[in-house]
Design goal:
With 312 residues, the chain is an alpha/beta fold. The protein has ten helices and 14 strands. β4, α2 and β5 form a beta-alpha-beta unit.
């Protein structure tokens, strides 16, 4: 079994294209066509694999779309463990408008999982032997899955002595941190939802992250803030990363690229500061790729020298 396992309860086949202009009624003919395996944990596993990490992606599959998803995952040399669902795996659709450079993201709801189906994912994780050192839960929960699903995964990981890392939002995130997780990677919006209030400035963001750590809800908070940079808070230290100067092509997959790079380096026993620096470069590198291509190692290494950290 791999050193790292990702779990994606609501995976997708991501279809992306580019059109000249988006207008109503008219046929909009795409000038490009791409299909990628998608869903938070799968994207994280794709990045970890590109960086030479030892990772296996766990996810449900259903119908022809599920079979295509598994083929796309394995085409990127990512190891898979899957469990079946009666409903088809979802597709998401991404369109880049060339005239304005604006991206449009159409996220479909996905299948409804029965109790036996979502329990199948927990059972699959529990049976892993030897158990991985890192378990990463990432992405939305499909319909039918209880809000405390990631909290249950956290319990399984804790029972086996593994570190549980979570990237989700809303009630699922709140339910998981209530019992404590090792690391969370919220965006600024997700952090505001979690704490239940506006965070008007950098001091407020940092204070909110410190509170989550101090109360035991998260061992580490890695807060990604888009064009405002990133923040990493542990019980011992605070690291701040300034945003890199660049013209983004696309924002899809930046958070997943950040998390994949962070865990890849932590699993390789790199110092926390270096892992955070690499993660910031990876998140920025994803901005240079179209569709759901995620970050490229060559871009990450090129941008690494531009990452500036401040220690509090």
């Amino acid at each position: 079994m791999s050193d790292i396992v990702t779990i994606t309860p609501n995976p997708a086949v991501d279809v992306s294209t580019t059109v000249e202009t988006i207008v109503p009624v008219a046929k909009l003919r795409g000038t490009t066509q791409r299909r990628d395996p998608g869903g938070g944990g799968i994207n994280v596993a794709r990045v970890i694999t590109r960086l030479g990490g030892d990772v296996t992606a766990l996810y449900p599959v259903g119908g022809p779309t599920g079979l295509l998803l598994k083929q796309l995952v394995e085409a990127e040399s990512v190891a898979s463990l899957t469990w079946p669902t009666a409903d088809d795996t979802r597709e998401d659709f991404f369109v880049q408008e060339r005239a304005t450079g604006q991206p449009y993201r159409f996220i479909l709801p996905g299948p409804t999982l029965s109790e036996s189906e979502w329990q199948g994912g927990l059972a699959l994780l529990s049976r892993l032997e030897p158990f991985p050192r890192f378990v990463i839960g990432s992405g939305s929960l499909p319909r039918g899955v209880p809000t405390d699903y990631y909290a249950s995964i956290a319990t399984i990981a804790r029972t086996h002595g593994a570190r549980f890392i979570l990237d989700t939002s809303g009630p699922a995130l709140a339910a998981a941190v209530a019992g404590g997780v090792d690391l969370i990677k919220p965006s600024l919006r997700e952090m505001q939802e979690l704490v239940g209030g506006e965070l008007p400035d950098a001091a407020a963001w940092e204070a909110a992250a410190r509170t989550l750590v101090a109360t035991g809800k998260a061992g580490t908070v890695a807060l990604t803030m888009g064009h405002l940079g990133a923040l990493l808070v542990t019980p011992e230290r605070v690291l701040r990363a300034q945003p890199l100067t660049m013209v983004p092509v696309n924002a899809v997959g930046a958070g997943d690229s950040f998390l994949g790079a962070l865990v890849a380096k932590l699993a390789a026993n790199e110092p926390l500061e270096e892992a955070f620096r690499f993660a910031v470069a990876a998140g920025a590198a994803a901005l240079l790729r179209t569709g759901t291509a995620l970050s490229d190692p060559a871009d990450i290494n090129r941008l690494l020298a531009d990452v500036r950290l401040q220690t509090a």
